[in-house]
UniProtKB/TrEMBL annotation:
Protein's organism: Patella caerulea (Rayed Mediterranean limpet)
Membrane topology, record value: Multi-pass membrane protein
Name the UniProt record assigns to this protein: Palmitoyltransferase
Lineage: Eukaryota, Metazoa, Spiralia, Lophotrochozoa, Mollusca
The reaction(s) this protein catalyses: L-cysteinyl-[protein] + hexadecanoyl-CoA = S-hexadecanoyl-L-cysteinyl-[protein] + CoA
Family: Belongs to the DHHC palmitoyltransferase family.
Amino acid sequence: MTHREAVSSHKTASLETSSGIDWSKPPDVDAYLDKENAQYLLEKRTSPQKWLWKLRMMNTAGFVYFSVYSLSSLIVGHFITLPYIYGYDKDVLWNRKILAAYIFIMLVTNYILIVLRSKRSRFGIFSQMLPSANQAHWTKCPNCDILVPPRAKHCVLCDVCVLKRDHHCFFAGCCIGFHNQRYFIVFCLYGCLGAMYSLYVTYCFLEIHYTPLFSLDFYGYLMPWLLWRWYLGTIHHSVIWLVLLLYLSLTTLLACGYFLAWQLVLLFTGQTTYELLKRNKTFKQPLAENLKSVFGKWSLINFIIPLPWIRNEGDGRKWKTRCSLEEKHF
């Protein structure tokens, strides 16, 4: 053995002794890759926890927005705007107040039913049904580690799988699924009506007591200009609150109108939001069957009075595929 080989052998032995690794054996590449893959999957699964609290804060913000806006609209309408606009006739005034109260009651009632009935749409380990030959298209949820029926999706915020999940509603703080979709549709409808009514009466009041919006003084409705005039003492602070209510009414009208239009599209196509975006027509149903699945037997009455005792047709677990419906039709 030469001097160079002896030095190299000594360095190798020293390195093996200090590191505890046997360099004479080939490295276990598969074990290393498995470890890296497991670490990647773990980080991928736990990464939503970093921003989950922000989304949960949006649940709180949505509830606060709904509570403050709906109560403010009702109080301002009953005690300020409606008496001034329709005060010339007590019968007309009472009719307008009853209409506003009815819209508010329908809005709050359907909101409560959205939250309460969302628990029925949750599919957990205690409600699991093992798939059989008649229950195809069941898949395994990697988060819940259970088998879930078709059209059920996992919600990161609710941390549970939801039957026929459509989306997570931040205003209600829960998911819209099989058992509460009808209440969400009615809620959006009365949200539009209430916001439109509040927008109209608030603007009529401001047009008389402040300035018309469609005039050369339209900039008077800009919030920085309002705050500056209030600072100078040229307007009362109540004008700022009424203009702010006008903004909130317009925002609510646009938001509820958008969600209502989207839900009507889903109602006519017989799909969920996920299925429509992915162009998945596997479980697409005809309009008549979809109405019964969403609203139950008495579809239109749900828009006049809530019918929580009328159940949807089906259980949210078994769904007919489009092929079976076409075969049945022919």
